[in-house]
């Protein structure tokens, strides 16, 4: 259930009510702020939960107001998926203990926990508070670029061997500046140079140039464009039903027919 805390209790359908009848029940509750805390009764949306959890901080480039893909990180990632994981874990426990559980899936919790991999970069110095200065949001080799005609290209060649492949395709492998991949002082200058380069050709040009390489470059597609991408088509990810674009279920199971 996804009501504010206390609504199901007032309806006589709260966890204590129903688990008194059947203690094996797994009772899933998904909210933005959680069942407890000062904001438990407050309204909110995806952006608000991400904002307070820290999940919004590194979205967008430095100097721009943070803005992530709508609904993906809070509603779906931090909320729905964590609710599903919790329910599945409780069902497994129920099989051995005979007891159910109440799952408190809060989007503010889940979006915080989703930062764990990023936060692990703190130790090696790969993550700092200032936006645009960390390993994944500062370098020229981990960002998006505007292309001629209004399209965009994504670049994230973190590992040296992938970065080398990236430079070779652009004929920059002998450039003194670009050869210093992990020199933060050079990142702004190299970013500006790549921005000028990518702006010279449309995104389709760059997508073709880097096709079938390990340079870790991909054209940014709108969902409407993605359905025409050869890889997306091969996996039959997007389809139209009653005139509406929709994605296929994920993940895929070997026991399921396509």
Nearest-integer average pLDDT: 95
From the spread of the alpha carbons, the general shape counts as: elongated
Figure out the total of helices. Answer: 11
CATH architectural grouping of the largest domain: 3-Layer(aba) Sandwich
Strand content: 5-15%
The residue fraction in helices comes out at 25-40%
User: Which H/E pattern describes the elements?
Assistant: HHEHHEHHEEHHHEHHEE
Q: How would you classify the helix and strand content by structural class?
A: alpha+beta
Number of domain modules: 2
N- to C-terminal distance: 31 Å
CATH topology term of the largest domain: Rossmann fold
**Which residues form runs of ≥5 with pLDDT under 50?**
none
Described by strand count, sense and barrel closure, the largest sheet is: 3 strands, antiparallel
CATH superfamily of the largest domain: Crotonobetainyl-coa:carnitine coa-transferase, domain 1
> How many distinct beta strands?
7
**What is the topology, as strand order, of the major beta sheet?**
3-4-5
Radius of gyration: 23 Å
Provide the CATH top-level class of the largest domain. Alpha Beta
What does this structure look like?
The chain folds into two domains: about 5-120, 3-Layer(aba) Sandwich (Rossmann fold), CATH 3.40.50; about 140-220, formyl-coa transferase, domain 3 (2-Layer Sandwich), CATH 3.30.1540. It contains eleven helices and seven strands. About 35% of the residues lie in helices and about 15% in strands. The two termini are about 30 Å apart. The protein is elongated. Strands 3-4-5 form a three-stranded antiparallel β-sheet, covered by helices on one side. It has a two-stranded parallel sheet with strand order 1-2. It has about 260 residues and is α+β, with helices and mostly antiparallel strands.
